[in-house]
Every structure is written in structure tokens, then in C-alpha cells.
Amino acid sequence: MQQAQQTQQTQQVRSYERSLARCAESRTRADRPRVFTMEGREWDLLDGVFAPVHSPSTRVGLEFLGMTGPAAPTVADRGSFLEVGCGTGLIAVLAALRGHDRVVATDINAEAVRNAELNIARHDVGGRARAVHSDLFGALPEGDRFDTVFWSSNYVLAPAGYRYQHDHERAYVDPGYLTHSRFLAEAPHWTTPGGRALLHFSSRGDMSQLRRIAEETGRDLVELGVSIVMENDEPVSHYLFQITKQLD
Question: In 10 A of CB 57, how many CB atoms?
């Protein structure tokens, strides 16, 4: 038992260290673009902001949300949309373009907020979308509510004592899953009646820890979708969960 626990701890350390190495590589690689193309559109990319072209997670998130392919709005495309951890703002902008009438994009990284503002302006959706510098929901008006709340999380678990060396790392790892704990506890409070709080997670994260947090916060994780993609010759499962209140 002790050996198994040590092995698991070693794997977790390697996992977060590998993620931080990928983070550093993405931020400093010579071919990092200033402008990239996704979903047939061009997007600005600032230094220190998560690069959707260096990871499949943004495209998987778009697929989960039904935002790939021709923009044919459905009922789910209408209403208000909150993207937490927006990065470049790509998902938020596409939400506005596909018919959501009010879109808010938040990020704790101030450079990501500036990046989202650039892409909101680039695609002329300023009338329906805005970017907010916020630690999760902290900077939002207390009474604000959304039909959809979505977070493509920094699902890799880092040790609780880890301190970020750069804001870019916030998109890759979550020390002690403190941010996940807060999101699971708070996200349903920010939805409209009948609205959805959605979490994009991955097998690179600690699923057992996530479920333990859900239990502690009185939440259920309802699996809405799964997608398996190859990342560096390794199959990685991506999950879309709806966060609901546990039934009594």
C-alpha cells in the first residue's frame, strides 16, 4: 500500500512538472505566433497567454459546446454565456458570433483579459461581449446570472505549496486544486434557473480528487461528453461535466 501511494505521488509530481515544462515551451518557442487561425478566423495571441495552437484542449472545448463547423445557431446558442479562464477569448467570441446575446469572458491573468479584448474588437462583438479581470467570479456583480457557465480548467494537480512563477502557469496547473474546489462550490450559484455550470476536465488531472471535492462541496458531476485525443503520442481523455447539486 505504501509503495502504491509513493508511486501515485511520483506520477502526480511528474505530471505537474511535465505540464510546467510544456507551459514554458509554449511561452518561449520561436514559432509562437502573434496571430493564429482557428475555426476559419484569425485570432490575436499575446505573450504570456495560453496558446490554443499548442494544445488540443481549446478545440475539444469548442466541440463539447457545439461551436465547431458552420455557425447555425440552435436554442443552446442563445442566452447569456460566461467563460471562466478565457485566455485569448476565442470561445467567448465564438459564443457571441453564434448567437449568445450576452457574453462575459473572465481571467485572473491581466494579459489574457487584454488578449480577449483584442479579439472581441477584431471580430466586432463588443456589443455583446466583454472581458473582465477576475479571479473566478470575484469581480462580477453579485446578482449576475448566466444561462451557461463554462470553464476549461487547469486540470493538472500541483502540490498545494506550489507558487506560480508566471501567470502563464495558471492555465496549466492548479496547486492543491484550490481553484477547482471554489469553482465546484460557487459555479451553480451563477447560473440562471435552468442554466448549466460546465467543467472541461482531462485524464491528465486527478479524477478521484475531483470527485472527492465534488462530494465535499455537495455537488454531482454529470458526464455530458468524452473525447479521446492523442497528445505527444499519448491518448488523453477529455471530459465535459455538468455540475449539479447533490440530491438529498
Answer: 23
Domains plus CATH for the chain? 2-245 (3.40.50.150)
Helix ranges (DSSP H) in 70-177: 90-97, 110-122
Model confidence pLDDT, tens digit, residues 85-144: 999 999 999 999 999 999 999 999 999 999 999 999 999 999 999 999 999 999 999 999
The C-alpha atoms of residue 182 and residue 156 are separated, in whole angstroms, by 16
Phi, psi of 83 (to 5 degrees): -105, 120
Give the whole-angstrom CA distance, residue 27 versus residue 40: 24
Is 140 strand, coil or helix?
coil
Residue 12 dihedral angles phi and psi, to the nearest 5°:
-65, -40
Summarize pLDDT for 192-222 with one digit per residue, the tens: 999 999 999 999 999 999 999 999 999 999 9
Q: Which residues contact 144 (CB under 8 A, 6 or more apart)?
A: 104, 190
